Amino acid sequence: MSSNTIIERRQQPRLRRSSLRGRTEATWAAYIAEGLGTFGLVFAGCGAIMIDTLSHGAITHVGVGLVFGLIITVMIYTFGHISGAHFNPAVTLAFVVARHFPVRRLIGYWSAQLLGALLAAGCLRLLLGDAAALGSTLPAGNGEPGSPSDSKPC
């Protein structure tokens, strides 16, 4: 046997371990990218809605739509090459169902997206308070929904 053969045999296991470590690092990088991207989307988009409410419509629906469009564009360009830029559990599930994404990474992506969204909502709550009741739909009428005082004549 030549000395090159012995060296090659010794290096192979080390290369395999580093490739596993590389895959693990890439997986964690994707999870972090999904969390940060979802954070950015929720923070900017929902923040625009809350500021629009606090400013009594100064941003307008068009402005809110532009914020969502711009932030998703920035997040896709920033993290798309790392994680695929799903930023939404429904998108991740759709990719799994279409078999364009491995099932084994579904829970990790969902966890990262949930954590990013919750952190963004928490930051908005701390910064802006209870503006717009954090996006909840509130009844608009004179009385209870479905009551005679709530209905309007034709």
Explain this structure.
The protein is an all-alpha fold and 154 residues long. It has a domain at 29-132: Up-down Bundle (Glycerol uptake facilitator protein), CATH 1.20.1080.10. The protein has helices at residues 3-54, 60-83, 89-97, 106-128. The chain is elongated. 20% of the residues are buried.
What's the short story on this structure?
One of its GO terms (cellular component) is membrane. This protein is mainly alpha-helical.
Topology:
Layout: H1 3-54, H2 60-83, H3 89-97, H4 106-128
Q: What attributes characterize this protein structure?
A:
Glycerol uptake facilitator protein; mainly alpha; 154 residues; 4 helices; elongated
Give the averaged pLDDT, no decimals.
83
Q: Main β-sheet, in a few words? A: none
Order of helices and strands: HHHH
Radius of gyration: 24 Å
Low-confidence parts: 12-18
| Count of β-strands | 0
| CATH class placement of the domain at 29-132 | Mainly Alpha
